[in-house]
Amino acid sequence: MVASNLIFAPIEKDLSALNQNLQNMIGARHPVLYAAAEHLFAAGGKRLRPAIVLLCAKASAEDNQILPPQRRLAEITEIIHTASLVHDDVLDDCSTRRGIETVHSVFSTKVAILAGDFLFAQSSWYLANLENLQVVKVISKVITDFAEGEVRQGFTRFNLQFSMEEYVSKSFYKTGSLIAASCQGAVLLNSVDKSIANAFYMYGRYMGLAFQIVDDILDVVGSSNNLGKPAGSDLLQGNLTAPVLFSIPEEPHLVQLIETEFNDVNDMNDALQFIKQGCGIQQAKDLAKEYLQAAIECLTNIPQSESSVLLKKLTLNILERVS
Fold first, then answer.
1. Could you give the CA distance from residue 316 to residue 287 in angstroms, rounded to a whole number?
2. Which of 10, 26, 116, 293 could hold 86 in an S-S bridge, CB 3.0 to 4.6 Å?
3. Domain boundaries, the chain
4. Are 174 and 144 a contacting pair, CB within 8 Å?
5. What's the CA gap between 233 and 54, in Å, rounded?
6. How far apart are CA 140 and CA 73, in angstroms?
7. CATH for 4-322?
């Protein structure tokens, strides 16, 4: 993301500490589970989710300070996200993630599933230790949402009747739910009014939806170097995303390729070309812009501060990934 380093500057030390703590928090007794989890965190990643949590914590605090439980929540958020990626990679049979081999490619499918379960369990344990029932309820719902999103995705592969409304709903379960819940959880730890907590929840919801749409656009237009996985990976799995759904009405040849599930060696390249030459990508960008604008609107009633301004800048920078 362009300029994200500048936006994250006020929380740079917190993010650096988070990277170290993630490795300390996974201290599994079994060496294979530890190696699998360590393999994931060593790969890095954008750390977007914990950064948003930390900025929400600062934006909702009267003294602009981050509390220790909020730092821990940022770490929990990244562990939950990483656990979901391990299971996603198994389900989608991805060989690379963030430019390195996936856990099930390095170890085995069994180890990958156990590693994902282990990370979910670790996150739950640390979540319980926050000793804030409201936050526990909000965050624990996310794991249910992940499962719901995966089940929905599994039953709609290559389904040309899959609607945009269903896509948005699935995107919330798979991406928006965690960001929304962690934003809300961060500000609940500051004991804010319910209306403020709800505003941050909706901010995270819209951010998550926009972020997923942008990711789905990159699956079509991005390169393997930028994605950390081959372009078209999601489409090859039969996941019909925003740019694909917008392209279907204007590209009958794309419909044929989806119906035959890309059974010819050149089908995927042809499909990507059909999407790129139509209006689907621009329509997907426009939809992402709508969600990003809605996210910014959610911050209008939040007291103006350096952190709230940075949240707005971060929101606007999401779209720069595909500009």
1. 14
2. 116
3. 4-322
4. no
5. 32
6. 12
7. 1.10.600.10
152-169 pLDDT per residue, tens: 888 999 999 999 999 999
* Per-residue pLDDT tens digits for 208-227: 999 999 999 999 987 655 55
Task: For residue range 235-274, list pLDDT tens digits in order.
Answer: 999 999 999 999 999 999 999 999 999 999 899 999 999 9
Q: Does residue 16 register a pLDDT over 90?
A: no
Question: Percentage of the chain surpassing pLDDT 70?
Answer: 88
In three-state form (DSSP H/G/I as H, E/B as E, the rest C), the secondary structure along the chain is CCCHHHHCHHHHHHHHHHHHHHHHHCCCCCHHHHHHHHHHHHCCCCCHHHHHHHHHHHHCCCCCCCCHHHHHHHHHHHHHHHHHHHHHHHHHCCCEECCEECHHHHCCHHHHHHHHHHHHHHHHHHHHCCCCHHHHHHHHHHHHHHHHHHHHHHCCCCCCCCCHHHHHHHHHHHHHHHHHHHHHHHHHCCCCCHHHHHHHHHHHHHHHHHHHHHHHHHHHHCCHHHHCCCCCHHHHCCCCCHHHHHHHHHCHHHHHHHHCCCCCCCHHHHHHHHHHHCCHHHHHHHHHHHHHHHHHHHCCCCCCCHHHHHHHHHHHHHHHHHC
CA angle, corner 196, sides to 194 and 199, nearest 5? Answer: 110
Say if residues 12 and 55 touch (Cβ distance below 8 Å).
Answer: no
